[in-house]
Description:
Elements: H1 2-17, E1 73-77, E2 82-84, E3 88-90, E4 101-103, E5 112-119, E6 123-132, E7 137-139, E8 141-143, E9 146-147, E10 151-153, E11 160-169, E12 172-179, E13 186-194, H2 216-228, E14 233-234, E15 236-238, H3 245-254, E16 260-264, H4 277-287, E17 291-295, H5 317-320, H6 331-339, H7 345-366, E18 371-374, H8 385-388, H9 391-408, E19 414-418, E20 434-439, H10 451-460, E21 466-472, H11 478-483, E22 491-493, H12 513-520, E23 525-526, H13 528-532
Parallel strand pairs: 14-23, 15-16, 16-17, 17-18, 18-19, 19-20, 20-21, 21-22
Antiparallel strand pairs: 1-13, 2-5, 3-4, 5-12, 6-11, 6-13, 7-10, 8-9, 8-12
Helix pairs in contact: 1-2, 6-7
Amino acid sequence: xxxIKTAVILAxxxxxxxxxxxxxxxxxxxxxxxxxxxxxxxxGKETDETEExxxxxxxxxxxxxxxxxxxxxxxxxxxxxxxxxxxxxAEERKGFSGTGYVTGFYGGSADFMDITVELDENQHYDITxxxxxxxxxxxxxxxxxxxxxDFTIKGDSNFTKITFYGIYMEQGENKIxxxxxxxxxxxxxxxxxxxxTVYDTEFELSESAVNENxxxxxxxxLKAMKASFGKKIITGQYASSDENKELELxxxxxxxxxxxxxxxxxxxxxxxxxxxxxxxxxxxxAEKGGIVGFMWYWNAPDEKNPSVYSKDNDFxxxxxxxxxxxxxxxxxxxxxxxxxGIITLECLELVKDIDAVSNSLLVLxxxxxxxxxxxxxxxxxxxxxxxxxxxxxYKWLYNLMYERMTEYHKLDNxxxxxxxxxxxxxxxxxxxxxxxxxxxxxxxxxxxxxxEQYMWLKKITDGGKLLAISECSSIPGIDEMxxxxxxxxxxGLWFGDYLTDxxxxxxxxxxxxxxxxxxxxxxxxxxxDNFSGE
Length: 534
């Protein structure tokens, strides 16, 4: 126990000392294709081929262009743009600007509109579209070939504005393309204006964890994460099992291990108790000086269909809700409430599951290991049972879990990560330490910094929380994050096809080898070695 506590404290101290502000003025440096070999004595002698080779690369310095934040305001009417496919101009729908609008987006792949914008400076811009539809239409735009996130045109028949914030574009000619959506819509005009919020890097982070009784180790880790925020990103990787094959592969490719090992704590429902392997793997990682992160794929306490997916079970979270203050009751008293008909079976089973998972997390608390705890993820999507019934039942369950774990079970080692994926599902600010978002993109889409989501998350949390990418399909771009002032607190790359091929080797479908090497050897990325000092 003492060994682990010492490792955690030393790791956090190393993180604090590693977080001096980085320069965004320095030019990029080429990555070395050479790797060094050293024998066990560290004398730099070349080993023979039978010995394991240690790969190392020169430190990478992010490439950041010179940016001039200047006033800009350009409006381009749709009827003045290049049209392709079945597109044509019309005047029937009321409320348009200019001499008409563009229609004919019927879903054909040949339908497109190219908008050419001349810009005076390298800087970040807001792009506002004005469009109308009679039914909800989901679509996307590309900027100089880069696909932005999807947007929805509300089907109320009126021209409405949709804005993309903080999009980096360079001086000169830039091309914005709008292609066919999943139904017909009309397009009126586009506006491009300078963005200022990207350059506002101020956050008002609290000094302490939201749990006023947080353990010393949790407070030290959280303080270190706050010190690194905006300066360095903490690398993270999900492990599919206790064998840590994904982490070992990253080390083989980059010469570095991720700082955070993310795992799934397992079942814990309907008396289904997973093995202790994940808890033991977390302890082993903490002994190495690494950070432990856990999510919970919580199978619904539904005996017939115990699944996480709402479509696969009949569990009703709404039916479980109660006004009874059960968070700190012994389970025997909660069972009495059920026997008296005061609460439902669904409510009782939820508490039993929370108690079961808490008992496993208590093992880590006893070992004085802080945990990045991310329960009830992606609720806003509705595909998991804890989000299907809407924000109110979700918030009730989140609060029940928070209070029972912190106040009843005394799990003071948890650092709470909210990942509701929707502003409607945002819980009270005193219930989470970190706001996170899961971002998955098709492999042909450049991942970049995801600064749009960064600014959205900052906005809904009033700049008072650490921001993180809790799950991703590709590692974010280190150059783009520095350019866009969106260095997330950490990222967590999912396993499977996002990292490995069928033989367990590196798959470059989502992230190229060069990008892995760049990230894990960047001066503003924290890995296991420069986080823990090992």
